[in-house]
TrEMBL record:
Taxonomic source organism: Streptomyces gancidicus BKS 13-15
Pfam families: GGACT (PF06094)
Domain of life from the UniProt record: Bacteria
InterPro entries: AIG2-like_dom, GGCT-like, GGCT-like_sf
Domain Gamma-glutamylcyclotransferase AIG2-like: 5-134
Protein name per its UniProtKB record: Gamma-glutamylcyclotransferase AIG2-like domain-containing protein
Amino acid sequence: MNLPFFVYGTLRPGEVNHDRFLRGRTAHEDPGLLRGAVLYEGPGYPYAVEAPEGEVRGELVTARPESYEELLAMLDRLEEYVPGDPRNLYDRVERTVTREADGTAVRAWVYVAAPTVAARLRARGTRVEGGEWRGAA
């Protein structure tokens, strides 16, 4: 099954990587909410860190079926994610995201901070209050 992607940083509409990676490859982009995570500032992009009390705002992106495999590979490269690699900055995990328009719960891929990055951010990172990140596109 091809899961949608939940994006919360530079892949959101109006941000630097949206057009580069998503334009023409998506069927739908809907506002969504990821519960159980908080955002931390990164070097020009955010990290979602799993935390029971938080929520992160972003978009639920459904890829066009013919673009899914290409988009999955491109996003893994962008996030420097390699399954099982302990050097990953992000891990791609399956989580439930709520579609804001109708409250529907949807299973989606989310790139969250890998465990070592998450531990560092919790100890000395700058949290993004409100779970809404907007960079300087």
